[in-house]
Amino acid sequence: MIPAKSDPKWTRLIDNLATVKAINLSTKMFLNRLKISIIMDPSPVNKRAALDQAFAYFTKNEALVNNEINLIFA
Amino acid sequence: MKSVANKSLLSLHEAVALIQSGKNLLISGDESLLAALPNGNWIGGTIPYFMCEEGCLSTRERLQVAVLPGDITAATVRFYEAGQLPSIPTDYLPNGFSYIVIPAFSEAHRRFAEDCASWPGVFDSPLIGWIAGVDLGDIGKSLPKVFNGQTGESSIAHAAVMHLGLPKSQFAQANIINLFAQGSGDTLTFPAAGFEASDCFVNGEKRNFAEYIAARHIDTHLPLVANYTGAMINVSFQEVDPQAGIVRFYAPIFPGVEYKLADPVEDYESAFCSELHTRQIEPLFTCNCILNYLYAKLEGKKTGGLVGPITFGEIAYMLLNQTLVYLTIETH
Q: Helices A44-60 and A25-40: crossing angle, nearest 10°?
């Protein structure tokens, strides 16, 4: 199940994109996009935007990312 | 790839019969054959190189046809100008996948390669396809082309996309087989995005990349490899111009991404078959890279039962190089 947006797991995900593990190709590429975005602009505003994008991606694709939720938010 | 009577390469006559049967088809081949096809539910692109049941080969006499399953719920083909490409994800069907073919050397090719990862929603549904090409001996003489079989239009400039819907019980998955892995050498980064680079950073130290390649006697048949959260993504070398101090690539490099030169793959055919055996897949569509065909000397060799075009670039959400891309349909 996808964590609520207020869950600190989302912040941990955004702060640990360099080490997160994923299964699906789309998720790997999506998370890499966020990682590069934060490398280029590590401001709190951009990190918040990355968190919003991540929540939207996982929520919209919940059925498809079901196999990797536990791995990503462990 | 779903083929007919266990053969994917068909004569023009056989392909016409399939189109007239009303099936949804993904077609690749020589321009003269594609241009002779009647309107129907198909999308096409030019290329004369194929993985097929006989092994990898080049032909202008036959078309390669992938027959899509009968339970596809929708199949709509449209062209996108380069400036319209970011709207592709907004046309994704709620449950399905999208198949894209882009002519090599076009503005759409460049724009897709450089920008697609930033388009909102691009990762929300499988986007898979390839870059259309021509016979290597015809580069500079003729241009790759894509076809919208539903309208009979063709283009050297537009991306052609077939948006497909699937029954609720199914979902599509795009995936890749990349036999290259990051080597243990220097970490390379680049200050700007693009298909060419002059400056780079070698373990953080600024260098001219062309000079670096020459000084290290680097084998440019091996790609640069980046680790995208566990997915190994290649950027292949096109040309090193030592006089201009410029290195050109077949896909863009991006700032912020750490690249390493790939380790060599000693026996591509064996390594590929081993990987296939591990995965146990039956793809709906597959394509492989012309550089794998050339560098791994795949002509006449079989690719473990997988068939599909050998292309000027592979697409699985993003433009890839020296990578096999495939799409599978899974059941919930």
A: 170
Mutate to test the interface with B, among A17, A25, A71 (most CBs of B within 10 A): A25
Q: Show the tokens assigned to A3.
A: 């964590």
**Would you tell me how many other CB atoms lie within 10 Å of the CB of residue B111?**
19
- What token pair was written down for B322? 């020296």
Confidence grade of residue B106 (pLDDT, cut at 50, 70, 90) = very high
Mark out the alpha helices in chain B (DSSP H runs).
12-20, 31-35, 107-115, 209-216, 268-279, 290-295
Query: Mind listing the pLDDT tens digit for each residue in B25-75?
Result: 999 999 999 999 999 999 999 999 999 999 999 999 999 999 999 999 999
User: Is residue B4 one of the residues assigned to a domain?
Assistant: no
Question: How large a percentage of chain B has pLDDT more than 90?
Answer: 91
Minimum distance, in Å, between the CA of residue A32 and any CA atom of chain B: 5
Q: How many CB atoms are located within 10 Å of the residue B112 CB?
A: 26
Domain for residue B2, yes or no? no
Q: Is residue B3 part of a domain?
A: no
Q: Does residue B65 sit in the same domain as residue B107?
A: yes
Q: Each residue of B285-323: pLDDT tens digit?
A: 999 999 999 998 899 998 888 999 999 999 999 999 999
B181 is a domain residue: no
pLDDT score, position A7: 96
Domain count, chain B: 2
Q: How far is A33 from B229, CA to CA, in rounded Å? A: 10
Interface of B with A in 175-234 (CB under 8 A): 175-176, 228-231
Encoding tokens for residue B158?
């537009």
- Tell me: pLDDT of B7 over 70: yes
By C-alpha distance, which of B70, B148, B61 is closest to B103? B148
pTM of the model: 0.96
* Structural domain range at position B209: 188-261
